[in-house]
Amino acid sequence: KTTHFGFRTVESKDKAGMVAGVFHSVAAKYDLMNDLMSGGIHRLWKQFTIESSAVRPGQKVLDIAGGTGDLAAKFSRLVGSQGKVVLADINDSMLKVGREKLTNKGIVDNIEYVQANAECLPFPDNHFDCITIAFGLRNVTDKDAAIRSMLRVLKPGGRLLILEFSKPSSELLGKVYDRYSFDILPKMGKLVTNDEESYRYLAESIRMHPDQETLKGMMDEAGFVDTRYHNLTGGIVALHRGIKP
Ligand code: SAM
C-alpha cells in the first residue's frame, strides 16, 4: 500500500526517509492532532518541561526536533530580548509551520530556525545553556549519536531535557494504552488527516523506544551527570534530565 506522501509501508522504507515522510505529511494538522490525541495533556507535559528547565533571561536555548515550536515559544518569553532560542528540526515543513505561527505573526522576535539533524548538530561546542528534545528522540535513528551531539553543544553545567513517551508503570495502564495507540490512534489519524499509516508508525515507534532506565543509562554512558527522570501520566511519558559536567 502506498500512502499519499510516498512511502509504501512502515517496514519497507528506511527509517530516516520514513520519518521525513511522516512529518511532511502531518505538518499542517500536527498541532490539532496533538491536542486531539492527548486530550490536551501534551500542553501540561510541555509546561512541566519548561518549569524543570531553570532557564533564565539572557540564556541560549536549543529546542531540537522542535517541530512547530510549542516549547520554543515558551522559551522565547523566558529568555527575553537578551536571550536566544534556536528551533531546530530535520523537517522543513514542520519548521515552516512553526515560523508561520510564531515569527511571521509577530509573536516572537528571538527565535532562529535551523534545519538540522539531532545526530550531528551544526553548532559550536559549549554553546547552549539548555537543550530540549520533546517527542523527538524516538524518531532519531542513532539515538546515542544524538545524545553525544547534544552533550557537545551544551555549556558545562548546562542541562538536557528529554520529554518522550516511555513505559507505563502499571500493567493495566499499559494494556489500556496499547489498545488506545494501536486501535484508536490510527483511526483518529485517518479521520483528521486521512493518513492512517503515519499514526500507525507513531504507535510502533512508541513501543520500540527505550524505557525510563534504559534511556537514563544511555545518558550516563554518553557522559551526562546527575541524570534522573520524572514519570508523567503514569509513565506514559517521562521527562529525563542530565547535566553536562
Ligand atoms: N517537539 C515538538 C513537539 O513536542 O510538539 C515536535 C515533536 S514531533 C512528534 C517530532 C519531530 O522530530 C518532527 O518535527 C520531526 O521532523 C523531528 N525529527 C525527526 N528526526 C529528527 C532528527 N534526526 N533530527 C531532528 N529532528 C528530527
From TrEMBL:
- Which biological process, per GO, is one annotated for this protein? aerobic respiration
Q: What is its EC number?
A: 2.1.1.163, 2.1.1.201
Q: What does this protein do?
A: Methyltransferase required for the conversion of demethylmenaquinol (DMKH2) to menaquinol (MKH2) and the conversion of 2-polyprenyl-6-methoxy-1,4-benzoquinol (DDMQH2) to 2-polyprenyl-3-methyl-6-methoxy-1,4-benzoquinol (DMQH2).
Write down the Pfam families for this protein, in alphabetical order.
Ubie_methyltran
Q: Which reaction does it catalyse?
A: a 2-methoxy-6-(all-trans-polyprenyl)benzene-1,4-diol + S-adenosyl-L-methionine = a 5-methoxy-2-methyl-3-(all-trans-polyprenyl)benzene-1,4-diol + S-adenosyl-L-homocysteine + H(+); a 2-demethylmenaquinol + S-adenosyl-L-methionine = a menaquinol + S-adenosyl-L-homocysteine + H(+)
Which gene underlies this protein? ubiE
Query: How is this protein named in the record?
Result: Ubiquinone/menaquinone biosynthesis C-methyltransferase UbiE
Q: Does the keyword S-adenosyl-L-methionine apply?
A: yes
